[in-house]
Amino acid sequence: MKDRSAGRRYLLDGITRFAGLAISAALLLALLLVLGYVFLGAGVGFNPGMLISTGNTTSGGLLNAIVGTWLLAGLALAFSAFVGIFVALGLTQYGGSRTSSLQRVAIDALAALPSMVLGLFGYLVFVIYLRMGFSLLAGSLTLSLMMLPYLAKSAETAISNVPKEFSEAAYALGASRWQVTTRVLLRFAKPLIISGALLALSIGAGETAQLLYTAGWNPGFPTWFVGSQVGYLTYVVWAGINQPSEYSHALAFAASAVLIGTILALLAVSKWIENKGAKNA
Amino acid sequence: MTYASASREYEKDVAISIRGVRVSTSTGKEILRGVDLDVYPRVVNTVVGPSGSGKSTLLKVLNRLAELEGLRVEGEVMFQGKDLLKANPYWVRKQIGTVFQTPNPFPMSICENVAFGVKLHWKVDKKELDQIVESALREVGLYEEVKGELNRSALTLSGGQKQRLCMARALAVRPSVLLLDEPTSSLDPVSKRVIEALITELKSQLTVVLVTHDMEQASRVSDYVAVMKGGLIEKWGAADEVLVDLNQSQGGVAPDGRRGIG
Q1: Which residue segment(s) compose the domain that A20 sits in?
Q2: pLDDT digits (tens, 9 = 90+) for B53-66
Q3: Each residue of A75-107: pLDDT tens digit?
Q4: Running DSSP on this structure, what letter comes out for residue B260?
Q5: For B107, which residue in chain A has the nearest alpha carbon?
Q6: Furthest-apart CA pair in chain B: how many Å?
Q7: Residues from chain B contacting residue A278 (CB–CB below 8 Å)
Q8: Which helix (DSSP H) or strand (DSSP E) does residue A45 occupy?
Q9: One domain for residues A19 and A55
C-alpha cells in the first residue's frame, strides 16, 4: 500500500529544517551587524593610548573605566557566587520541598526585577542608609543582587546534573552529607558552575542602570571600597555618545568595543570550560 | 584509629541478624513485610527472587541507603552487637560496603577512585595510600591489568574492569561485610565469570551478601540461599538444599520465571 502522507511529511521536514536554518542565520547576521557596527565605529577614532590612560568621557582614555568595571563585576561575583552556590545546595540537597519552592519563587522574582528598580534599592539602602556613598562596595553589592539569580540557577542545574549514582556510591562508602556535597557534587559540578559564573560576570560587566545609582563616576581610580566613586565602561558609552564632540564618540565606541571584546572572550572561556568538563565526565 | 590498625570484626555464628524488618514508601506501600534472616560470616549469602520481591531494598536496609530514598524502615538488624538501624549510618556504611548493579566509578583516575573512600575515613600519607590502592587492586585481580596507568581515567576501563574497580573501591575501606547487588547483570559472560571467581575468593576475608536473578550463578557461588517473594523470605538455608528444593518445585526455572543464563 502506498503511503500517501510520506511526501507531505518529507516536505514538512524540509520546511522545518529551512526555517531553523533561516532563524539561525538571521540571529548570526544581527550579531555580526552589532559587532561590525561597534568595531568599525571604534576603528575610526581609536588610538591605543586610550587603553593605558585614565580619563573622563570627553578627554583622556579608558583605563579607569576598564579597571572600575572589572573591580565592580569581580567583587559582585565574589558576593553572589558564594550565596548562589549555597542557595543551589539548599535547593537541591538540604531544603524540604516547601522551603525549596519558596526559594525558587524568591530567585525568579529577583531575576524579574527591572535593573532600574534594583538600582534604586541599592541607592536607598547601600548609598544612603548604610552611608557607603557612591562607591565600589555599593555598586558591587547592587550588581550582586542582579547576578545572584543567574548564579543560583546555573549552580542548581550543574548540581542536579551530577549523576545520582555518584552520590549514592559516595554515601555507600560512608561519606557524610557534607563530604558528598564537597567531594562529589561540587567537584563534578564545578565546570558548569564556573561557566555560569563567567556568564553572570559578563552580564554584570555590561550593566549600567544600577551603577548610575550606586557607583557614580570617577575620572581616576577608586581609593577605597566606600566613599570613593568608580568609573565604568558602560557609563562612558552612555555619556560619551551624548557629548557634542568626536573624541567623546570615539571614546564611547572604544568603550563598547573593549566591553564586547572582553565579554566575548569570557563567553569563549566559559564554553571551553563547559566542554572540557563534559569531556572529562 | 589509623588505617593500619583498622581490622575487620567478625561475629562467630551470625554476622547480621535481621528480625521483623518492614519497609514502606512514603505513600504507605509495603516493600518488605517482616523479613527474618540470618547472614552467616565469611560465606556467600545469596538472596534470590523475582523482580520487585524486595531483594535490593533488603540490601538498602543493611547499608542504610533506604532512609536516603525516604523509605520507612522498622524492625531490628543486629550487627556487631548493635542495632544497625539505630547506629550511626556513616559507621554502618564503613563496615558494610556495597557494589551496585551498574558499575559506577567516579569520573576520576583509577587511583583516585580506590582512594576515595579511604580518604573519607583516614588521614594517610601518599606512600601509604599508594600501597592501599595497590593492595585493593590486587585483591580484585585488576592490578596487573592497570599498573603503570593508575592515573588513567577510570571511565576508559571495560565494563568488567569498572565493576572490579568498584569492588576494590569498596574493599579499600576495609568493610567486614560486602553487599553485591546483581553485580554481574550488566556484564558479558567472561567478566561475569571473573567476578564470580572473585566473590568466592573474597569470602575468606569477609562476609558476602549477594543479590542475584541468576539461579545458575547462585548455585555456583553461594553457601547459603534465601528466596524472597512479595517482600518476605520464603525459603532460607544451605545453598544445596534450598536450590535443590527450588529446582524440584519449579523445574529449574528461576523464581522470576527466567532460566539461569550462567
Answers
A1: 1-45
A2: 999 999 999 999 99
A3: 999 999 999 999 999 888 877 677 888 888 999
A4: P
A5: A281
A6: 56
A7: none
A8: helix A5-45
A9: no
